[in-house]
Write a structure and sequence with these properties.
It is built from nine helices and six strands, in the order αββαβαβαβααβααα. It has 292 residues and is α/β, with parallel strands linked by helices. Helix 8 (225-254) runs antiparallel to helix 9 (259-291). The protein is elongated and about 80 Å long.
């Protein structure tokens, strides 16, 4: 997360002044010591003090979104917009996202960044595509850009969505939860500026991407444990049974156990049983959480 003191005024100045009051536009600009520089009639900036400690996970995104959702639930807003504070998105394109919600066509609208992706760094394209594919595995998400921070939410979506992830994977978890609750999600092309003159992230892209990917894998395994743990576990167990049978047949023929075959069978049997047990436990936990 980066400080947004220099980015906030241009965002506020660039916002269309003639927006209807049904759109309460809230910027996701929350870092410690970021003062409330500008307050406008149609823009509410929630300034939260979020402590940073060395070695702790990045809590800023979840804290920012949670404070946004809590605020929106107790406000008169009909449409809530999140926009990254690095200056990459154009605030004058906010109406593109809010229109479908105001017309009742969608509950969530995502700003799609890849229509004009020629200026996007290659490593970001590659990383985003991987994160998109992993996110889609957790739910039937027919979306092209699950990592965009430029989004619009209806009041109904804000009330229904629940997420627990503490880091950047919260963006994916929100969409997965929305899909499971049958909320309508759509995408709209937006302009993205990558040469803004500002540093768009203070995190190393490799560590950042790997961290998000690990969180997404955890999320996928929690959401679909039978598919991604149970089935592989069953296949592994079958292989273990087959190798065990071969080992016993060799023993009957020679009177000696084949050490390599026996070790292979033990490993496959153990791993298979463990995967099946873990998938069953995660499935039960997931069902319990959903029933609450």
């Amino acid at each position: 997360m980066f400080k947004t003191d220099d980015n906030l005024p241009p965002y506020c100045a660039g916002n269309p002044p003639a927006r209807n009051s049904v759109s309460d536009i809230i910027s996701e600009l929350k870092v410690e010591n970021t003062p409330p520089i500008w307050y406008g009639l149609y823009i509410s900036v929630l300034s939260s003090k979020i402590k940073f400690s060395s070695g702790l996970p990045p809590l800023t995104i979840r804290a920012a979104l949670k404070s946004l959702f809590d605020y929106a639930n107790h406000s008169n807003a009909d449409v809530i917009v999140t926009i990254d504070g690095d200056g990459q998105f154009l605030p004058e394109e906010i109406p593109k996202l809010t229109k479908d919600i105001e017309d009742g066509k969608s509950d969530i609208v995502i700003g799609y960044r890849f229509e004009t992706e020629k200026d996007m760094p290659a490593y970001r394209k590659f990383g985003n595509k991987i994160l998109d594919e992993v996110s889609k595995k957790a739910a039937n998400l027919n979306l092209r850009d699950t990592q965009s921070g430029f989004r619009a939410y209806s009041k109904q979506a804000i009330k229904k969505i629940y997420f627990r992830n503490d880091g950047f994977a919260a963006d994916s978890e929100i969409l997965i939860d929305a899909s499971e609750k049958n909320l309508s999600i759509s995408e709209h092309n937006v302009t993205v500026l990558y040469n803004t003159g500002n540093k768009t992230s203070t995190k190393n892209p490799v560590s950042h991407g790997s961290g998000v990917l690990i969180s997404l894998f955890e999320l996928v395994l929690m959401k679909r444990p039978l598919t991604f743990l149970g089935i592989p576990g069953l296949i592994t167990l079958v292989v273990g049974i087959i190798t065990s049978t071969i080992s016993l047949m060799l023993f009957n023929q020679t009177g000696h156990f084949s050490v390599p075959t026996t070790l292979v069978s033990v490993v496959f049997l153990t791993v298979g049983i463990m995967l099946i047990l873990v998938s069953g436990i995660l499935f039960s936990i997931n069902r319990t959480i959903q029933s609450r």
